[in-house]
Structure formats: structure tokens, C-alpha cells
Amino acid sequence: MRTFALLCFFLLSFAALTQSASATENPSNFLARIYAIYGHDEVTAAFIGETGPKRIASKQFIAVLEEDQALTLPGDMGYLDADPICQCQDYQNLVVTDINILSNDNKKSHATVTFRAFRDSNLTTTTEFDLVAENGQWFIDDIFDTNQQSVRHAIDANNKALRIKGETLP
Prior knowledge:
- By secondary structure, the chain is of the alpha+beta class.
- Helices cover 33% and strands 22% of the residues.
- The protein has helices at 2-19, 27-36, 59-71, 151-165; strands at 95-104, 108-116, 125-134, 137-144.
- It has a 4-stranded antiparallel β-sheet with strand order 1-2-3-4.
- Strand 3 and strand 4 (137-144) form a beta hairpin.
- Helix 3 packs parallel to helix 4 (151-165).
């Protein structure tokens, strides 16, 4: 019995350890891979609410996005009316000009990405990200818009307001 208890403790400890494992990939590479998708007109952009193997958002961010969709009436768009990654509705051959990692401890990272949404334009936009490591991979935990407002917290606040108003689906 004692051996069984030790085995259970070991397995639970290992499971908890793997949940908080440090990311193995450099956060710059993770962000570069996401933005590389935007560099081609014929490719669909990265979708922040994607689940499954193509997921790029943290579990917490996905939960907020899923609640937003659950609270959205059929035919309506939900809180996001533009792509928060490029802060745009349209882009053409997006060009990244800089990825800057502001802090990183391999479990959480804070970074900015500066880019031109249109290759032929000189206008740049900078998007700020909080990244979190889950099971050894980076995921977007929050995005900050051009006014330095948290996108995840704004969606969550909107979800709470809809619940308080009683504007929820059965």
C-alpha cells in the first residue's frame, strides 16, 4: 500500500511538473511563425480562437473567447470586430519589422511585434503580447491594442456585463 501511495504521489507530481514546464522554443520564433502566415495573401490568417493542434492562444484566453461566442446571438460577430494580432481587418503581404522580447523567464514572456500591414506602406503598427508556456509551448495569453488596453480583459469585462444584463443564451 505504501508503494502504491508513493507511486500515486510520483505520478501526480510529474503531471503537475509537466503543466508548468518551460517553453522550449524562443518566444521570438513563436511570434515570427504566427506573423509569417500574414505575409502571404492566399493563406488564411492565424485565428486567435483556434482550438486543437493549431491553437495559438492560452487556455485562459480560449475560455474567454469561447464564452464570448456563447453569449453572442446567432448572426452577430461577438466582441472582436477585427483581428487582434494584426489589429486590422485587411492586410496585404504583411511585413514584420521588429520583434522585441521585453521580458522572458521561459514560463511567461512579454513581447512587442512591429509590422506593416501592407508591404507597400510605410505605416507601422506595434502589437504587444503576453505569452505563457503550457506543456512546453508558447501561447498568447493576452494582446494589447494600440491604446495599451488588454484585449482579453476587455472581452472578459464585456462577457460579465452581458451576464449581468441577462443577455445570455439558454
